[in-house]
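User: Assemble these into one structure.

Assistant: Restating your components, then the assembled model:
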Amino acid sequence: MKLPVRIDWSKFGLPAAFFVMLIIFTVINPAFFSARNMIQTTRQGAILFLIVSGQTFALLARGIDLSQGSVMSLVSIATISSIYVLGAYAGSIAGILFGAMCGFINGMLIAFLGIPPILATLGMLFVVSGVELVYTGGVTLTNLSDIDQGRLFWFGGGMIGPVPVPVIFAIIIGFLLYYILKYTLFGRQIYLIGTNADASSLAGLPIKRVIVLVYTVSALLASLGAFFLTARLSMGFPQLGEAWLVLAIGGAVLGGTSVFGGKGGVWEALLGCLVIVFLDNGLIVSGVSTFAREAIIGVVIIVACLGSVIKRRV
Amino acid sequence: MERRVKLSQSPILSFKGITKRFPGVVALRGVDFDLYEGEVHVLVGANGAGKSTLVKILAGVYQPDEGEIFFNDKRAIIRNAEQARRMGISIVYQNFNLINKMDVGQNIFLNREPTVGKIVRRVDWSRIYRETSAILKRLHVHIDPKSLVGDLPVADHQMIEIAKALAMQSRILVLDEPTSSLSEQEIEDLFHRISSLREEGVAVLYISHRLEEIKRIGDRVTVLRDGEYVGSESIEKISLEKVIKMMLGREVEKIYPWKPRPVGEVVLSVEGLGSRGAFENVSFSLRKGEILGISGLVGARRTELALAIFGALPTHSGRLIYKGKAARFNNPGDAIAAGIGLLPEDKARYGMFPILSVAHNITSAGLSLLVRRFGLNPRLERNITEEYVRKLNVRTPSVKTEIQSLSGGNQQKIMLAKSLFTNSEVLIFDEPTKGIDVGAKEEIYNLMLELAGEGRGIIMISSEIPEVLGMSDRILVMKEGRITAEFDRENATQEKILEAAL
């Protein structure tokens, strides 16, 4: 028997707020809407989108990945170090795989040893940043050959027509992730496991395999973000990832991915990171100080979390 | 007979023309209803009839849109839970609100702890335990006030909830489905307690799906249907058939639509199965097209047996023969792939994905069936799940609706669809009609017969003896992890089953 379908208006709230925000910043300072500023901001946005998408995988599975930031720093160092030996292309791939491996270990700790995600990834955060600081002594890695530097820089700072290269990659990866979440067994299993692990177990789902993959994907996407950042800087920066973890979790939740698992996705990740990068940029253009900016973004994230909690209760 | 209410007195509580609307639906429409001191008033109605809305108005959770409430002949407005409590209304909800890590006394006096001392106010523990003992004694319950709630059986939780209500000096006690987690003996005890409360002049509003309880405990019955008040009758003057007719709005020939049907070869044999700490040496066989009922009291380990067959609980002895071959299911995935389906008893915990759609719930155990060249095929998923929704008559806006927004009976039908979706040849239904109304029950019984008619073997675990008697071809009785009796349909009686179960 059919009952009437109700439209969920709450879905349109954030996109509407986003456009209102764009208009307000443009009125305050028309330079905000200039082509130059938009291109710069989407470049940042593309990188944040990758990291937020990774975090989204962990959150969907009712977990969290706190090691993303330090894995990013590690990838920056590992990429440059590998390029010294392997050249720009193979070196970059090695660096990214190094990061993904940290995620694989996270997944094994969580799935097979039963360590809660928040603790396993917190431990990984310290291990990775410790190892990386011992290795570099906190010193930035530079001195790439001109050929390698040129090749590497293109990934982070290059343009294809009017579009920054990381944006192109982010769009392709975004579609791929959307496909994975919506049309693959793995994707569906993440939602099921994140919603009810006990019921998933009785439904015969391969919970351990899915969890390992989820944290591998989370770290892989953070590593890709780190790679584009490193490419733009063309150097290995030991503190590269520090600021990004909070933005990753904040962006995911802001977009509507639930911290209670099973709800959210790529669209929410995109929405969340667009709001964060344009809010941040708009505040800069409007002349707001760095500290005040951080505070404002923090408040926005907390309010968004509150929204997620209230929705869950109703 | 003298215990029956003297209706000459005026009611302690009356609802006059109460209407409550929610967006798009009228939950209650002009409901009149009286409650007297010293009566047990049974409120019945199918799922969605408005019972819980009525209780929530009584609890001060909802405000009626129209109509008036009279308390002791005076117009009253119940603004919130606190005010309901001050008026002496106590509600024992279906899902208990007890804290497992606290003891009985702490639970009963939670948030109302008496204190001593003027400057530093200390909790008066000795008074808490003294009064708890007194209340438990009054209920004839033998529980140590200092034992942890989590260590006590579920049946005791029910009594503690009632004790909590009594500690508040309640004049009106609302019991929402109090027997759904109790065994036959415990229900008997509970009814004794309710009777003595009635003698003390407490007005009891008793909400139940179990019709056979109406005659055992009630003085009067009120029937709601689709938010409408159908009528109130004295229990002595009304037959159960009449009550069912009032609930459904039509005649029901029989509650159990069992019909004889051909039964095929053995599809599953369990030989000497044992699981440490749960059950020992369990042997039985199931034939194609057969409905095998498993009866027993709470704690007979029937659910554990089901889980062990399904590969979700390790076994240490015995074996399974499935379709003529020795089979070993190391996990539920193996069992599902082989063609075994399980409808778990605790659907909220082990069955449902509450925030996911009806479609995603139905397909959750058999996702690989939806894989086509480009991965999961959403159109296929929609078509198949819509077919199930139609076939099982599930009331839902669409297959995209979140399952948590549907009623219990409809959720249960979706859980059934989930176990069918994997093309199961053996279906294990653990308490398939627990907590759902007569209409939905009837539909589930008919469906079980249809499935058996298609040649599937069905194991039905049920604590309701009439249901086991009414629906099974053969009946096993379990007690403390062992099978204590087996009956053919013709030879089974309520007395024989109880004797084997006790």
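The radius of gyration of chain B is 24 Å.
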